[in-house]
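Marked as duplicate of an earlier ticket. Keeping the data here for the record.
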Amino acid sequence: MADSRIIPDPPFAWAEGAPYSQAVRVGDLVFTSGQGGFDAEGNLVEGIEAQLRVALANLDASLQSAGASLGSLIKITLYLANPSDLDVWRAVRAETLSPPFPATTAVSAALLFDGMLCEIDAVAVVG
């Protein structure tokens, strides 16, 4: 059986040459790596609201590189360093995404970069 995975070029210059894919498309599904609040230069922005907004923008760029978008999300996994930031997520999500919202799992977790307050990975449908 032939490998049906499509791995687009990373949408961020700082991710070129990274030892993982920003997105992988298999058929009509796109799976993303975790996206954090890193700006175009790869620097972490400050504050939970800013990180969530940038993480969602990065998620959208990763999805678009594989033919999907935030509007075609079907599943999100949200990782928060501080569980009390869940209300901030809900407010940013309400401004960024439209109901019905995708299936979502929220987890409180220690994140790997100092100062990183959130990370988001997702599954979307192409088209």
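See parent ticket for discussion. The radius of gyration is 14 Å.
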